[in-house]
């Protein structure tokens, strides 16, 4: 199967980005280097090509009630112009995908899903929504570009000549760029102040180049995106979220506020394993799949993500640990080349993120 | 563009060797550091330890990957670049200079290594 290309793939390869296939898409991993791009995002602003993610439009009479039963999101508290993070669960209450739902109107929504899960999510939603509700996969025609970092709002305002200081966290607004629709959402996946931008695929390159014309903005690859999200303690589907763990185990119980009878609601709070944040001693990284053990050597879990954390200047990891041992403070990680000592910490690993900054 | 210095010898696992009489200095190549990306940790061999060509004598880790260091020749370690403990990024910024890894006393003449021209061709085939 040929790799999918985004409207920006050519731009990335022309600039010598290191490219790799991610969820079937040929994506930029790094331009200048992961550490430099990571630090630029924390200090200034970076632009990320996120066109691989999937977008669905759900609308029509009954869509509010039907979507409330299909996903864990609390649509009763979701106002028009706001978006919310939540989960698509299987009947056992485990996670089929994590996604953001945007409310465009009373009975009009956009759902943004992970690239690798798009086809499955669409099939699940089609099955759960009555046929009177329209479900459209708009991924192909929708481009997604993330602008993230403490300077992101200023750079966006400079590029669009429009004020966005009034846009609160997890709110969005429709505007225009190049006389075509542009959706600006005050959300992101780095722990920094920023926006996720949605536009027509053909408008992606002009928007990308306009934003990069600001000297504060540099392109960032998926490598930096991953170290940024890990430092912010944000889960990545396939690592911290999967079909054998529920949102409570992943530390997301606070998101389960919906009173609707949604699929998986009953099992969503069962606790078998807990996602535990760890600070690893030394400079050697723990990696996905490494066994987590107690001091006596008994295996009690496994690492889901681990990396040197550039802004914390230490090694951090997330791991599934049996619920019965999740409150232990000290663990041993059996890494590929030796044993590492790890100590329980809390998330976010990086405490100085600007994501929730109040701008007005 | 002279990427790989002409005076060095190269292994197919992307280490370099600079022979200086009975001793030699070992490092990883520009190609290797570029493939690994930002290097965050270097495991150095112990001074006095002996290795045969092809044996693992240490390891390097980057943000995204980890890789063994493979001895390019038979020898005994006489010195290691301890600067790498605090500044592993020297492997990225100066792979043939300040990013040297170890000095070894050769116990056999290296005979399986490539010259720079051969290594340039080898890298081209590695993509």
TrEMBL record, chain A:
InterPro entries linked to this entry: GcvT, GcvT/YgfZ/DmdA, GcvT/YgfZ_C, GcvT_C, GCVT_N, TrmE/GcvT-like
Gene Ontology biological process terms from the UniProt entry: glycine catabolic process
Domain GCVT N-terminal residue range list: 8-256
Keyword Transferase carried by entry: yes
Entry's EC annotation: 2.1.2.10
Entry keywords, A to Z: Aminotransferase, Transferase
Pfam families cross-referenced by the UniProt entry: GCV_T, GCV_T_C
Ligand binding (substrate): 196
Broad class of enzyme this protein falls into: transferase
The keyword Transferase is assigned to this record: yes
Catalysed conversion reaction: N(6)-[(R)-S(8)-aminomethyldihydrolipoyl]-L-lysyl-[protein] + (6S)-5,6,7,8-tetrahydrofolate = N(6)-[(R)-dihydrolipoyl]-L-lysyl-[protein] + (6R)-5,10-methylene-5,6,7,8-tetrahydrofolate + NH4(+)
Residues annotated as domain Aminomethyltransferase C-terminal: 275-351
One term of GO molecular function: aminomethyltransferase activity
SUPFAM superfamilies per record: Aminomethyltransferase beta-barrel domain (SSF101790), Folate-binding domain (SSF103025)
GO CC terms, sorted: cytosol; glycine cleavage complex
Domain of life: Bacteria
Similarity section: Belongs to the GcvT family.
Protein name: aminomethyltransferase
Organism (species): Candidatus Desulfovibrio kirbyi
UniProtKB/TrEMBL annotation, chain B:
Manner of cofactor binding, per the entry note: Binds 1 lipoyl cofactor covalently.
InterPro entries for the chain: 2-oxoA_DH_lipoyl-BS, Biotin_lipoyl, GCV_H, GCV_H/Fam206, GCV_H_sub, Single_hybrid_motif
Cofactor dependency: (R)-lipoate
GO cellular component: cytosol; glycine cleavage complex
PTM-bearing positions, type N6-lipoyllysine: 64
Subunit structure: The glycine cleavage system is composed of four proteins: P, T, L and H.
This protein's name: Glycine cleavage system H protein
